[in-house]
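So, could you explain the following?
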Amino acid sequence: MREKRGFTLIELIIVIAVIAILIGIALPRLRGMIDEGNTAKAAAELRALQAGVESYYIHNSKVYPAAGATWESALTGATPKLIGTALSDPFNTTAGTQYQFAKATNGLYYVIWSVGPDNTAGVTGISTAGVITGTPGDDIYVSNGTSGTGGF
């Protein structure tokens, strides 16, 4: 009598189907864990940037850094040095994109934000009354205005 070795086609199909089901269950959970990690990272970095902005304010005649694409360079070039290097938003798909910063037109309030998991900025700025403008949604932000902190 001859001994059979190996797997039948049905057995292979069942094994492949089970593996596909397990992968289908694991991938969404993995994405959620990555987003949670990036949220925690953004929240911590935003708090550090907020401390840097407040320190800049104290050391520069009670003036916040200018808003714009390179606003963090005011913190990296300050004396004393407030942050070592410009920080990148972990949610922004464009590599090296910094967190966003806006100042109220009266110069009294600011907001620093990350675009959040949907990679779309809902925050648009801050009013002269210190209220966040726009729709924050899943954006992660810190502010010295009346809205405080959000997204974490």
Q: What stands out?
A: The chain has a mean pLDDT of 89.
